[in-house]
Each structure stands twice: as C-alpha cells, then as structure tokens.
Amino acid sequence: MRVTIYEVGPRDGLQNESVTLPVEVKREFIRRLAEAGLTTIEATSFVHPKWVPQLADAAELLADMPREPGVRYPVLVPNERGLDRALEHGVTDIAIFGSATESFAQRNLNRTLESQFEMFAPVVERALAGGMRVRAYVSMCFGDPWEGPVAPEQVVRVGRRLLDLGCYQLSLGDTIGVGTPGHVDALLDAFEVAGVGPDRLAVHFHDTYGQALANTLAALRRGITVVDASTGGIGGCPYAKSATGNLATEDLVWMLDGLGVETGVDVRSLVATSRWLADLLGRPSPSRVVQALSKEA
Amino acid sequence: MRVTIYEVGPRDGLQNESVTLPVEVKREFIRRLAEAGLTTIEATSFVHPKWVPQLADAAELLADMPREPGVRYPVLVPNERGLDRALEHGVTDIAIFGSATESFAQRNLNRTLESQFEMFAPVVERALAGGMRVRAYVSMCFGDPWEGPVAPEQVVRVGRRLLDLGCYQLSLGDTIGVGTPGHVDALLDAFEVAGVGPDRLAVHFHDTYGQALANTLAALRRGITVVDASTGGIGGCPYAKSATGNLATEDLVWMLDGLGVETGVDVRSLVATSRWLADLLGRPSPSRVVQALSKEA
C-alpha cells in the first residue's frame, strides 16, 4: 500500500504562524521538503495580503522557487483574481477553499453557502481550460465554532457540487479539530452512499484535541490514500481554541512507516527541517516525533 | 459499548515527574479523579523509596486516603516485601510489573527474564490467598531501548506465564512509545492464537511519538475494553527519549465520547484537575484536550 502525503506546511502552516518568514527561507523550506521525499507541496496562496500577510510574497516566491521533477507545487486560489495571478506565474495545480457550513462561508468567504459555487465555477472552468488540476478543500466538515457538529449529508452536498464543477479531489477538513474516528466513518459512509469513493477524497485533520492521527487511521482503513499534513505540525486555525495546528507530517510518517505503508518520505530529514524552522518561528514544534527525535540527537 | 479507563496518573504519572507532591495533594488528586467518574485509580506503589522517591509516602497516603464506593484503588507491588506492606494497609487490588524483554528485566527488575516468574509466583499466590485481585503489567511489549522491536510471540510467552500464575488481566505496555497500529494488531493476533482473548487484556500506551491514541483505536476495534491512561498525560518513561508521558486520560475520553462509548468520566472535570496539578508540578499538561479547553476558559 502507498499513501500520498499532501504537504501543507508552506501554505496552511505558515499562514497561521505569527512570524512571517523571509521569501528565501520559504524557498529553502520548500526545497528541503522535496529533498525529504514529499511529492506534493502546497507552496503558497494568492489570497489578498490584507487577510494573509504571511503569504503576501506569493508571486516573488513562485518567480524563483526550486522545482524538482515529479513534485507538484499547488497554490491556493480564492477567486478569479487569484487565478489570474496563478496563471501569470505558470502554476499547474491549484486548490480552492470551500466551506461546508453557512456560518463559515459567510465569515471566511464573505459569501453565502450557496453563492460560493458561483464564485468557484469560473475559477475551476478557466483553470481546467488552462490545463490545471483543481483540488477543493471543504472546511468545517466535522464541526464549526458557530454551528456545532456538522451533518455528513451537508458535507456531501457541498462536496458533490465542488466535484461537479470539475475538481479532481476533495480534501475533507476538520478545521477546528473536533472530529473523532466514528465521525470519520460516518462521513466516508455518506460519501459512499452518494457515489463518491475514497479515490476522490483526501483527509485534512488538525490536532487541536489530539485526535488527528487516530482519525487518519480510521480514514486509511476506509481506503483513503491521500492525507494532508504539515511538517512540524506548524500552523493552526485562527478559529480554533488552541495553538495546536495541522497533523504533523513526522507523526504521520512514523505511523505509516510502522504500518509498512510506503510514502517515500524520510522522517529524520523532516525532523531536521522542523528543528531548523522552529528556531526561525520562535516556538518549538508541537510534533511528538520531532520532540522525541530531538532528544535523541 | 463501555470502556473502563484504568487511571495510572497517581502512580505511573507521579513516579516519573521530577517534583514530588505532598501526601495531602496526592489524596486530593485521587479524590478529584474519583469525583470525575473514574472507577479504577492506581493509587501508589510499594517500590523501594530508593528507586522511586516520589512515592515514598505510600503507607501514609493509604492510611488516610478518601475511598469512594464502587471505586478500586490498586497499588503496584514489586515483590513479597511490597505485598506485606499492601496487606498491612488493607489493599484489595494489586499490580505486578513484569518485563517482556531480557534487557529490561535485568535493568529494571535486577532479574533474568526467566527468574522474574519465581519472584512473582509467591506474590501472586499469597495475594490471591488474601482475597486480592492481581493485575500484571507487561512492559516493553512493542520495543525496547536495548533490543529494538519485540516479537509478539515473546510477549505472549511472558504474558501466558503471568496469567498462569493467577493474574486476572495483562496490561500490555508500550513503555517507550514506539508502537504503531499494525504492531498492535499483530500482538493481539498472537494472543488470540494462544487462546488469550481481549477480555483478559488491557493496553497501556505512551505518547512519545504521538501514536498512543491511534494505537488505542486499533485495540478498541479488536475488542479491548480496558485502557490505561494518565490524567493530564503526566509521567513519562525514564528509558524513553522524551518528556511525553502516558496517553492523556482527557484525550482518550474525548475520543470515546465522540465514538459514543460510555466511560462515566466527565472530561471537563479532569481538565480542571489537570490545570490544578500542572501548577503544582511546574509544567503545563502535554494533553491536547487540556491545552485546548484551557484556552476556552
């Protein structure tokens, strides 16, 4: 068995850190991630700098980013203006960021749940026409700070609309980290009933309540083979009540190595990168594997 | 479904913290754990104070410990001298601490792997004659700092001997936290082949590499219904390369609540206890749930 790790550290990780790194450090971060064996690295975002100042250098980053053969470097694109910029910079893979709930759509996208599709439709259509691959994040799939638990059927309705637009994959996000393995099963059941199999789905967990790896295990046992993670566990969600961020790539690789699942990723190389990055970000990595292997050194 | 949480904070947790708490604080800790709904609370240990000075007050603790109806308060007993003291203090449940590996038996028990059974035999025999229940820990079931990975068959050989002595349950310990879910399955498979079902087994995971909860999920799905955990995730193993200790009871309860598994335990009550204890121990709780719910307050 093989699992593809979709690395989100440079985008989802760095956009939620309080320290903004210089562009050359970001390039080095991305170079190191590819060197460690990651083959999908979300590099940055064309969200307006007013909202995400940490990634205001997206154009500059992409202009001179080290690219390895066989590695994809998707970029998050919120709208048509972002797509224009991605097209200008030769991006081949983009991701759009949808919401499973009305409350988060209004607060994060400044749109209603329904009108998000009108915003995304021309983005996906033009991206596909330009030969791009388009992934869709579905955020708040398990719970929402304003609405509480989110019904699987609601997530499926949103997800199907995004697939129908032409996205090749949905990344099911537990943006505030409240999900547990039974909820993962229920959500994957609901997608299966709707005719969407695990080959169209990825999972994206946050470790706010320590559940990210257990949730991932539940998803793997349901046939999911693409897992989002952030090297060092950097990041976090501004809407969640903890500094704990994304599932750490190192903790994921440790489990997959133990399970005999191939990833092509060298965990010790990632740990070295996370230690280097922790100094620059001014806080220790929350990853257990980074902490444990650092004591070994 | 119902899971019994075997709380090890007052013993396995506190024995590995650098701060030694006053006996009245330990009594209050134990009282609060019972108040939160825990029904099995390992209270202390009669190991020689030279080895575990943090629990040197075991006799004093037990002399005036608050006991709730329906709650068991096992005590760790290393040998016959410890058993004598447990009998003197009216203890009804004890635990012995065996090793799955030759190296750890020699270093921790100062015995060979084989001679540990000679040491335990009179302890278990006399304890049973005195009407006690005897649980056996099997440490280093997944890996050992000197020997590396431990074969499931080796663990089963040790475990069967301990059950044959008259122990009612084995607690399978990942003392240094290196196990992953596939290894859990392999170990439970090996016990099943040997005729030892999940009703005789408990699991005891450390979160050194972030795997504790995923490993627990794997065990639950194999029918295990007794899980060891430490409130606040306090403790740690002196032989492991990280300060990260036992699986945090709060992170476990969060998952079980989400799975709809009954435990009778109130997670917010435990979080309040962990916050109180963290001040006294002088370090923040490593539990993700404690961290997240503390920000909420």
From TrEMBL, chains A, B:
GO BP term, example: ketone body biosynthetic process
InterPro entries listed in its UniProt record: Aldolase_TIM (IPR013785), HMGL (IPR043594), PYR_CT (IPR000891)
Record-linked SUPFAM superfamilies: Aldolase
Keywords: Lyase, Metal-binding
UniProt domain Pyruvate carboxyltransferase: residue ranges: 3-271
Example GO molecular function: metal ion binding
PANTHER family per record: HYDROXYMETHYLGLUTARYL-COA LYASE
Family from the record: Belongs to the HMG-CoA lyase family.
Protein name: Hydroxymethylglutaryl-CoA lyase
Lineage of the species this protein comes from: Bacteria, Bacillati, Actinomycetota, Actinomycetes, Streptosporangiales
Gene: hmgL
